[in-house]
Amino acid sequence: MAEEKINLQPDSFEPLAQTNEQELDSEKIAAPSLTFSQDAWRRLKKNKGAVISLFIILIMVIVSFGSTPFITHSELVKSNPEYANLPAKIPGIDINGFNGKMKVGGEWTDVYKQNGIKDNVHFVLGTDYLGHSLAQRIIYGTKISLTVAIVATLFDLLIGVTYGIVSGWKGGRTDNVMQRIIEIISSIPNLIIVVLMLIVFRPGMTSIILALAISEWTTMARMIRAETLSLKTEEYVLASRTLGQSTGKIAWKHLVPNVSSIIIIQTMYTIPSAIFFEAFLSFIGIGISAPQTSLGVLLNDGQKNFQFLPYQMWYPAIILVILMIAFNLLGDGLRDAFDPRTRR
Amino acid sequence: MKKYLLKRILYMALTLFLVATITFFLMKLMPGTPYSNQEKMTPQQIKIMNQQYGLDKPVWLQYIFYIGGMLHGDMGTSFQFSNQPVSYLISSRIGASAQLGVQAMIFGVFFGIIVGSVAAVYRNTWVDTTATIVSIIGKSVPNFVLAVLLQYYISLKLGWFPIADWGGFEYTILPTIALGVGPLAETARFIRTGMVDVLNSDYIELARAKGLNKFGIIYHHALRNSLIPLVTLIGPYTVALMTGSMVIENIFSIPGIGEQYVKSIQTNDYPTIMGVTMLFCFGLVLIILFTDIIYGIIDPRIRLNGNED
Amino acid sequence: MKLKKFATAGAVMAVSALTLAACGSKSSSDAQSKQVLHWTESSELPSMDLSKATDVVSFDTLNNTMEGLYRLGKDAKIEPGLAKETHVSDDGLTYTFDLRKSKWSNGDDVTAKDFVYSWQRTVDPATSSQYAYLFDGVKNAEAVMNGKMKPSALGVKADGDYKLVVTLDKKLPYFKLLMGFPSFFPQNQKVVEKSGNKYGTTSKDMVYNGPFKLTKWTGSNLSWVAQKNNNYWDKKNVKLDSISFKVNKSNSTSYNLYKTNKLDAASLSSEQAKQLKNDKEFLTRKNASTFYFQYNQTKKEFQNKKIRQALSMAINREQLVNKVLGDGSSVSKGLVSKGLAKNHGKDFADEAYVKSGVEYNKAEAKKLWAEGMKEIGQTHLDINLLSDDSDKAKDTTEFIQSSIESTLGKSVTVHAQNVPFKTRLTRSEQGNFDMVISAWGADFADPISFLDLFTSNNSQNDGEWKNAEYDKLIQASKTTDAGNTDKRWDDLVKAEKILATEQGISPLYQQSTAWMVKSKVKGIIYNSAGVNYNFKNTYIKE
């Protein structure tokens, strides 16, 4: 194929008219300058899934923690066995499954009527075996599950980040010893750590949190260490070192901000796995104890009665799944926002 | 290589020793005696029995005896199952757990690769989003919930598979699925991330430019490269599946080790607790060592020497 | 046309497949007419060594595969076992049993020596039997157990091959009942010694003389089969060909299996029981075990009788058993379970009933609480309520916590502590509790099995309640009044009344377990105390 002949006229080589001095400033960046976090936030906002997830998480946090003044100890302790095991009944809605009717032996039966319960009694999500409102239990359970997860993750962060930075920064023999310790700890199956911890301490929220923190921090420490190792050789770190900056300050000013993305992303993944693990502990009977409850406990109770009272498992399961999806999507979103290379 | 191996084996031994020590002393902090009928026994009888089981000796002496026994391969006798050596208890029940763990892993990895690859190829489309959400659901439904659902709908309502029990292969299908969905989700996620990276690299561009079709590229180039990091995930995950399968064992009435482990903890069956803990730990360190070696073989970029990780 | 033919052929094939399938199901119903019972257990079979067995599954299996002097029939009625005739001496301290000729499953003769060997083996401290305490009362048993005498000094002798002579230290009014418990069954010395450490660890390392013999048990597996024993002396009355046992730890699973006819019985959880209570195959089995509160009476607040009474009256036991447990458990009338023992046709539990001991009375509870709190000079109490961590125990503590707090108001806070069974025992023993929910199951059908617990120095009296009058009555029932049934009965009734009025403990409920059992299964014998199941006369009628 022959090349097209370009027809050039002499006036193509004329300089442009200088209309505005500033326009020619080639060094000028047109867009407003953004800090790293502003940039990340901008990218995050573009990710619909992540934004929705963020909202869902916020709503769940607000509702569950906002319920604290309403769902008090005495409210939790109160039981009404005469209202036990009622299905959902929402005023004004007449769809089977939400109108107080439940399939009993293959037939839709009005359980409220059967038990002689007054017409004005409504339980939006039904009740459990002691006549507690399931909706109230789920809200409270979400709060406990979130608390366990968040606090455990914070511990995880504190230990993991410090350990990782120290190990990576010091290097040499210290690093070697610290890495061996991690190796040993991660050679012990998680479950064994948790079970042994719970044997020694009293079962309950504190020991679950501690157990989770102890068994989960190694991943974080490893990642932070790897990142620190590479950051250590960066010019700006070297520069501030040469300038005589103290180690602590370097760690705080340079290292922590640079590993913050890893921290946030890792946190987003640790929270759901902590919720999950707590549910598992409840199944084997070493979870949260009454009158407190958690999503795991609710699921485990529901699971046992699934043949007859399926709603007792479905509702907490749905909430748990939504929460987990939200955290995971937000985690993905944050990862992409902080590290744009991964999103293509 | 030899030096590296030696060093690793030394660390393994050290790890196992430390775990044995920690477990032993923690276990001794557990309240209660191992006798199941303790409430009806007189203090005198308990004393005589403690003497027989060596529980009257100071803890450090018991510890030395225990470690000594372990070195000779003697893990003691179970309290719960009278006269049953712990080694027999473990060997008779590890089979089912191991089979389930491995099957679940194969199931998870196989379908995980498929889901992950499809998501990566059609990335940022609805296919990708669906795959992501499905795998998150898989990861976020506790396996006991899944097991109950499978048992109720697939076995009881549809009658496709046996409800519970342990017999032939058909008995393992539902437990495998219940257990394998977690690794499936994890693998899918891993593969997707890895593959997106690979698909954007220059040599894939080249392959594409050469006119290879989409799935040819995936099979010949992308998959292989994104599989490498998966190797590190599989080993430890399999051990975790075996330890964590007690829930599934309970629901599907499977004679596995996980359930036995929890029970031995609840009944203070010291020798069994120790035996199973050590077994799991041994499995994990061994698998970590193997994966590191395999990793070195399939990915020549990683050198096996003791100084760098 | 051709196509149509093809379709017909297909249909024919489908039909024949259906018939085949029908045949298949027919042959399985043939297997049913072969008299097979499909039973479920909730945990493994840990041991078949009757000297070392400690749990329900082991004892039940032993009861069906071994034979002792007697076999307990319906309502704990003593039915003939190996003892053909029994002579009791006038002082009630010597029992002579004439044994019938019978064989072990390996063809050996079952002789009086097998009994002697078995008993001596159990009490020998070297065997470390946890049930040796049952021999207390047999001559020298205690001395042997404590290592002060040789096992051969035990008061049991073989007089020839078929005569067994037992001498007692003191009168045991329930001695014959005990003989129906597996710890008193014979053991074949040859087999025990040949198997050594493996004795009773698999179905092969065992020998049987009962209605069934065990097969396919490897010591740790989840299924085993009891097959009819053709060497059993009374085999003509054994109708089942075999019993297949499967362990299912999850109640949902066993119920699902039951619904698909894979199991003939399923034990139910509380919630399942509540849903199924109107089913015609639903039944509840009473256990001779009572759940009760113990108060830590080393603490000032619980030494106060009014406080104890108030706490007891705050609990609506009716609601607890019907709405929370729902498994057929019933409100206790007192410590001794109902249906355990009768005298002149009157049940002990009815005789010893004290209304205020177990009633629910909100107003009275509040009043007593206020008075009690005033007496001890406190305005608020924090109570640690200790209990097990089983599902039912958790439900119970949650309900009790709620009842106490809502009845007695803000002046009390209950902290529920659900811990594993063994931890609960240890903490009870150490007195590390305020209130504990304890349970006691009778080993044999006599009130003393319960009432012995709360004498001042009994190791089970964790709350350390002390009452001199009570101790005196229990002592009298064992010594001066031991030979006089009526007087002994009165002593025990009086004792329990004292316990109830004083609220030394507060009985809560008598446990039951809810079951679904296929209606075609007939003749299962269930006893609330000691060994529960006897399948000797069970059969299946379609």
Question: How would you describe what is shown here?
Answer:
- The complex is a heterotrimer of chains A (344), B (309) and C (542).
- Chain A is mainly alpha-helical.
- Chain A has twelve helices and two strands, in the order H-H-H-E-E-H-H-H-H-H-H-H-H-H.
- Chain A has a two-stranded antiparallel ribbon.
- The longest helix of chain A has 37 residues, at 134-170.
- Chain B has a domain at 92-258: MetI-like (MetI-like fold, Orthogonal Bundle), CATH 1.10.3720.10.
- In chain B, 73% of the residues lie in helices and 0% in strands.
- Chain B has helices spanning 2-28, 43-52, 59-71, 86-121, 126-140, 143-157, 173-199, 202-209, 214-244, 246-251, 257-266, 270-298.
- Chain B is flat and about 85 Å long.
- In chain B, 46% of the residues are buried.
- Mean pLDDT of chain B is 79; it is low at 303-309.
- Chain C is an alpha+beta fold and 542 residues long.
- Chain C has two domains: 21-246 and 518-540, Dipeptide-binding Protein, Domain 1 (Dipeptide-binding Protein, domain 1), CATH 3.90.76; 286-512, Dipeptide-binding Protein, Domain 3 (Dipeptide-binding Protein, domain 3, Roll), CATH 3.10.105.10.
- In chain C, 35% of the residues lie in helices and 21% in strands.
- Chain C contains 19 helices and 23 strands.
- In chain C, strands 11, 12, 13, 16, 17, 18 and 19 form a seven-stranded mixed beta sheet that branches. In chain C, strands 1-10-9-8 form a four-stranded mixed beta sheet.
- In chain C, helix 10 runs antiparallel to helix 14 (362-376) and helix 18 (468-478) runs antiparallel to helix 19 (485-502).
- At the B-C interface, helix 2, helix 4, helix 6 and helix 11 of B face helix 7 and helix 16 of C.
